Amino acid sequence: MDKVDKMDKADKTDKADKTDKVDKMDKVGKNQLFDMFLTFAKIGAFTIGGGWAMIPLIEKDVVEKKKWISKEEFIDIIAIAQSLPGVLAVNTAIFVGYRLKKIPGGILCMLASILPSFFIILLIAIFFKEFQHYPTVAAIFKGIRPAVVALILVPVFTTAKSSKINIRNVFIPICAALLIWLLGVSPVWIVLAAGVGGIIWSIIKMKSER
Amino acid sequence: MIYLQLFWTYFKIGLLGFGGGYAMLSFIQTEVVEKHQWISMEEFTDIVAISQMTPGPIGINSATYIGYTVTGNVWGSIIATLAICIPSLIIVITISYYYNKFKKNKVFNAALSGLRPATVGLIAAAVLLLITPQNFIDYKSWIIFGISFLLVYFAKLHPIVLILIAGGVGYLLYGL
After folding, report:
1. Is residue A139 located within the same domain as residue A191?
2. Do residues A120 and A38 share a domain?
3. A112 and A176 fall within a common domain
4. Residue A183 sits in which domain range?
5. B45 closest CB neighbour out of A140, A145, A156
6. Does residue A139 sit in the same domain as residue A180?
7. Residues A207 and A133 reside in one and the same domain
8. Taking Cα atoms as reference points, which of B65, B29, B126, B47 lies closest to residue A145?
9. Smallest Cα distance from B3 to chain A, Å
10. What is the mean predicted confidence (pLDDT) over B36-65?
């Protein structure tokens, strides 16, 4: 009787221990989700100027401070994320989130990274219309508009360099730009044609090498 | 109906918008300004300027802004913003699952070799589409454009600083 009682007790404490552990794990899990949300919301709130500005911040927080993923993994993630369609910062957030907590993690980090800018732009959208027609605001934007066009001209050249545009392949960007600009071809078709073109070109190259 | 159009438009941009924010601009211009005429090219330029000075990527910012302007309520914003993210969610999760196979995928890398040079063309198209009489109202606009380019390309001036200076110059030239 005594033995059984003891065993029963031991069993019970064991069980209690286990549930305690599960509880703790659950808490850590929930805390980490919360932590992930805060981290990506912070990154989303403080990176001005688009996707590339976000990368060093993500690296600092996610790799160095929190140690959620290794540096090598992070470099791999960026390499893949930037070759995919969509917004780079969002892609990266989903990659990291999925790595940590599967699909819920991916969705959570995605939402966290877009929420701060969502609220800011929503406020601007609501109020900008009212100020837009003030003579002072109108004058300021008359100066800003040509500067913005120049701002977008810069990556034409920097991207041309980084994607190794030379005399032999310069016809691709020129044709793409002219088709969109002059003939009103949708960039959708340009992207599909460029992708298929790249595949065909690789097949030709492979066959001629044989 | 408008919500469906908004969703479909931004879903497409999220699904096929290769090459980063600037390359995505030509998608947004052709779909939102030219095809649906939800906003004018001037307004679009203003959104790009605002987007440069506020947190968040231009793709997301334009979705939030245009979603609101087109429908006049918050739901438009939410739908457009989520629509541009959903393709990413599906693609990234699928790729994470097949991560190691994907890294060495020859077909994808071959497609990418064609997409990279085309991306440059997409950004160039965004610039060409922005050169409108509304954005370039007189010769002074062209001077601002030229000096801005030199300052950012050669002197590596930060975009926010450039926009602040250009705003000040605009006030001096057109506001006084």
Report:
1. no
2. yes
3. no
4. 167-210
5. A145
6. no
7. no
8. B47
9. 17
10. 90
Encoded tokens for B41: 């090219």
Look up residue B156 and give its amino acid.
K
Q: How far is CA A125 from the centre of its chain?
A: 23
Count up the domains in chain A and report the number: 2
Chain A (3-42) residues lying within 8 Å, Cβ to Cβ, of chain B: none
Indicate whether this complex's ipTM tops 0.95. no
Question: Which of A129, A148, A187 lies nearest to residue B49, judging by beta carbons?
Answer: A148
Q: How far is CA A81 from the centre of its chain?
A: 7
Residues A38 and A52 reside in one and the same domain: yes
Q: According to the model, what pLDDT value does residue B176 have?
A: 85
Residue A18 confidence (pLDDT): 47
- Taking chain A (210 residues) in runs of 10, the rounded mean pLDDT of each run is 48 48 52 90 79 77 89 84 86 92 93 94 89 89 94 89 87 94 91 92 87
Residue A57 touches chain B, beta carbons under 8 Å: no
B contacts of A91 (beta carbons < 8 Å): 88, 91-92
Of how many residues is chain A composed?
Answer: 210
Contacts (Cβ under 8 Å, ≥6 apart) of A70 = A63
Task: Note whether A199 and A99 are same-domain residues.
Answer: no
Residues 160-199, chain A, touching B (beta carbon < 8 A)? 160, 163-165, 169-170, 172-177, 180-181, 184, 186-188, 190-199
- Chains A–B, number of C-beta pairs less than 8 Å apart: 360
Based on the domain organization, do A99 and A187 belong to the same domain? Answer: no
- Please answer whether residues B73 and A125 qualify as being in contact, where contact means their C-beta atoms are separated by less than 8 angstroms: no
Last residue of a domain, one of A164, A182, A198: A164
Distance between CA atoms of A117 and A95, rounded to whole angstroms?
Answer: 20
| pLDDT tens for each residue of B70-100 | 999 999 999 999 999 999 999 999 988 887 6
Are the beta carbons of A50 and B51 separated by less than 8 Å? yes
| Single pTM value for the model | 0.82
Q: Work out the minimum CA distance from A127 to partner chain B, whole angstroms.
A: 11
